[in-house]
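Running this now, will post back.
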Amino acid sequence: MPLKNRKSGETLKSSIDKVVKSDYKWIKKSPNFKFDWKVESENEVYKIFLLDSEDEIIGLMSLIDHPEEYRIHLNLIETSGDQRGKAKTIENIAGCLLAFGCQVAFNRGYYGFLSLQPKTELIDLYEGKYGFRQFGRLLAVEGASAKFLIQNYLFDEEA
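Update: finished.
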């Protein structure tokens, strides 16, 4: 996955896996996550981490499968507090998580359909940077736009 070192531009090796029960204790103790992720444990919760430091989660997302609507709903996403704003050292954490959500939607036969209900101040970011479009109250990405996210955030051109 093309997580990038912000200063050097170097690609960082990472992985996205399901959160396991023992992770919730670490997340709760971590000062880097604001949300109560234990509440999300009934959903599919995924973590992203660097391969050389598997014990440090740098991002989380919660997905809800809506098979009757052929879509995956991104219920919650959070980047580690030390990886936000000007102080962050790693680029593309949220993009990698969003692309992974699209890949889950393709794997389930939903044509990459990933929806979310954004905070008002993030609508422009999701539309401009990630290609989401308005679908009623929700923003969503699917089809070619979802493939674009997957290609740009899950595959490393240097590999």
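Helices lie at 21-29, 93-107, 123-130, 143-153. More later if anyone needs it.
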